[in-house]
User: Fold this.
Amino acid sequence: MSLLGTALFFLSGFAALLYQVIWQRLLVIFSGADVYSATIVVAAFMAGLGCGSLIGGILADRLRAVAAMGLFAAAELGIALFGFGSRWILYDGLYERLGHVAAHPSLMAGLLFVTLLWPTLLMGVSLPLLARALTRSVDTAARTIGALYAFNTLGAALGAFCAIWWFMPRQGLEGGLAFAGTLNLTCAVLALPLIGLLRWKSSRPSWAAVATRGASVSASPGAPPPSMPFGYPAWVGLFAISGFVALSVEIVWFRLLGVTLKSTAFTFGTLLAQYLFWLGAGSAVGSLAARRIRHPAQTFLAVQAAAGLYAGLGLTALLAWIGRAPALDWVRVYLAGYEPMAVAPATASLRAFVNDLIWHTPDASTLPFEFLFMYFALPALLIGPATLLMGFAFPLLQRVVQTDLVHLGSRVGTLLLANIAGATAGTILTGWGFLTWFGTGGTIRLLVGTSAAFALCLASLARPGRRRHLRYGVAVVLFVSAIAAVPDSEALWSRLHGRTAGAMAFGEDASGLAVLKSSGPTLRDGVEVYVNGIGQSRLPFGPGIQTLLGALPAMIHPDPREAAVVGLGSGNTLAALAGRQQLQRITSIEIVEPLTAVLRDSTRAIGYTGVDLLFSDPRIEHVTGDGRLFLRQAGRRFDIIEADALRPSSAYSGSLYSVEYFEILRAHLQPQGLAVTWSPTDRV
Assistant:
């Protein structure tokens, strides 16, 4: 029965992440792709999960096992109904009918919360209900709850991976939503035999106490429940800190790996799948080991502290290895390079290799080693050990706090709510604040320092006297050393762009990373402009695609007065457009805010007049934000609207190569106005 329950929860997790990836793509059209809109979407999603966890926990403690399983089936059915209709709800409803709400962030946040509340709340109630239905004794609670969490997370990892590599490219958004809805419907149907089995078992004497509402069943005589140091509220607070660190570190890891992989459309989904895989694997191992660990409270604190230590020391060691190992010369060349890795040929080569291995096809093929290392091995080395430890800690915490079945559901739900609340706070503070205030290096140091709270709590459990003071001292030395070892942001980004600190300039905040990298010892020797690790354009301006994009509409239009350029890059397109003196107002919209600042602040170091004019020309107005949202909300029409050249393989490039984008352009052009874009593919 437990095996079938975990299998159902695996499918449910697969569907949940398939939804999340696709819904985020749909909501980008409504709310925009900038960091603030993305954070609001994530916060709304997690708020619903947290509320659902709390409600599910309260209900679980008031229900018999049969009723809890029935409510789980109903929740899966409700998710399926929303999933099947989510294309119309999120696109036809939000974007086409309520798109104007996106101009007001507070209204947009409220609308997103209300819209996503139905499915996310139902997703949140699932674990407490299943835990109540499948847990027979306190002795097995940690293993059962840990296994459910593990399989759900592993399913989510597979769902995120398949969403980005299979459903989005091959089945499209609607195909992915239909498949996810079918999975939820399948879970609801397959839960019916479990309901019958639970009803039959509850009639047996050995199950009578478990099935009765309010029954208090303690552990078996041979395995007494461990003591709970600090008290239950303290563990709720510690798990909230765990969620805060976990999501904050995830954001930082994704920033680092996004730059390292030169962020393509496949990067986010692949990294999310890896993060969830290691989290689920850790929980699976923890669920098997929890019952054998004599001191789960101390082990939980030690594991959480070790995860924080690895987040700092692991990054430092990995950077040193990449920088010095002769076998990784090609990695250093790639990091210093201008172009991202070509994903399509690598995946084709991988498919050919697998086919050759299985079917012994005559076409010889080799493994795309570089692709596998960059997209899978390198992320695993950076995030795998720490995330494995985070997942391992969850069943241990259940072993600590689950002392009777009366409060099993509420304790599962409350802990999940605390963890999700901490994760939401981490998403907002790190996404909106820490990366801007402290940079990536400073944020890692801050999070490593936050993890020291677990080590200090662990030290406090030692006997008073010399042993406790020794543990405090060891904890302080370890974490201070880890913090000191983390390179600052300038050294970090220099290494990951193949330059010394003096041969580059950079700017970083929540919206992204901008780097000016010299071709020689100083910025006066020529500059390449990188945004989130990808080469965008060069200085000085030359006769390339950016110059043509800017100059062509300026020359063709008979009498241009107002123009808008989506994307700044090096400013080449903008400068070429501004050469037409009849233009009275030119608006440059850049989604990565530090790019404008780092170009402005580096004009003297670059020593190039073309850059100076971008910021001294009174006709040019620089705006930060999502270009599509700006055009929709500007309240005026333009004679020329154009987008700087953007690779179709780049993350969120679909926002500027979509039917919706071109419809916005058409709606905001003056009579005889011109919309201009690079056409890199036949589809565009």
In short: Residues 201 and 207 are 6 Å apart (CA to CA). Residues 207-224 have pLDDT under 50 and may be disordered.
